[in-house]
Write a structure and sequence with these properties.
two-stranded antiparallel ribbon, Aspartate Aminotransferase, domain 1, Aspartate Aminotransferase, domain 2, 2 domains, 372 residues, alpha/beta, 13 helices, 7-stranded mixed beta sheet
Amino acid sequence: MNKNVPLFNLKEQHDSLKNEINSAALEALNSMKWLLGPKTQEFEQNFAKALNAKYCITCSSGASAIQIALMAAGIGKGDEVITTPFTFVATTTSISLTGADFVFADIDPKTYELDSEDVKRKITSKTKAIVPVHLYGYPANMPEIMKIAKEHNLKVIEDCAQSHLALCENKYTGTWGDAGAFSFYPSKNLGGCGDGGAIITNNEKIAQACQSIRHSGRSVGKAYEYDREGSTLRMDEIQAAILDVKLKHLATWTENRQKVAALYRKHLANIPQITLPPEAPKGWSQCYYVFTIRVKDRDALSAYLKEHGIGNAVYYPVPLYKQPCYKHLNCKTEDYPNTESAAKEVLSIPMFPELKEEDVIYVAQTIKEFYK
């Protein structure tokens, strides 16, 4: 008999905190301070503290966090920003919204993160920044990326939409570069009840610029004076209140995801047709936004799992250089062989903190049955 094992289970987590979430949301609602109020300030302080960072600036989404951080770092028209084509489209649209142009570098075939060697090859006189994406919750090679950035005087804005509390050499993702951009979309490891995002930085100048940009470019502390052009990209007080409730549980949820990942590794071991996610080296840790395996017959396995009630998804089946909105770039697929292969073979299977061992075993047994 088939079990129902969803890819994500937001309801179980929400229900466990429903009373606390409802109370915090109602308090924010009744405060009549619905934007940039005390709940927002409290969450910003707590999220910065959780990442050992100096500043947190909340905003409307993970996408706007990337855009704001780039603008605050001085990136704009005529600049080039190197990033990955193996990511959600918000990474590149956020770059475009600053007026800059993005340039793709290929990915590492094992980690799916930016290939540092290809990044070096893509640097030109117009290159002003790098946007690494910590895909699937596995940290990009930040020591190498920062070394490249220092050599070429480049800004680094980390896309941390999928990497809450992931560590690289015992340092949280988002705190290596000039700034880190986080998403609080509901399915994220720290997800709100709607859209939301934040920029993390240790740079006071960038922090002040981010505060201004998200608030129409307003001068700090002045009602109708504007230092720059910004936009309305704030996060509302109710989302901040909800996120602050959930933030208290993030470390435990992260540990639970890592335990689920360890169970998958145990029960999926010795299946030659499967490549498991890379294990992080000492001093690194991944937060497992998703658990992504790699198989040659991906589409057939995906269909088989769905037939047996097991949720799964492909992140991402179409590289960005193949998207209709980017046809004008005339990118050559042969320039991105690792991205091409990954897009045809990756498959994400159920992963959430409350996933039970019996469900992990069922998923693993079903995969084994497929290969029999």
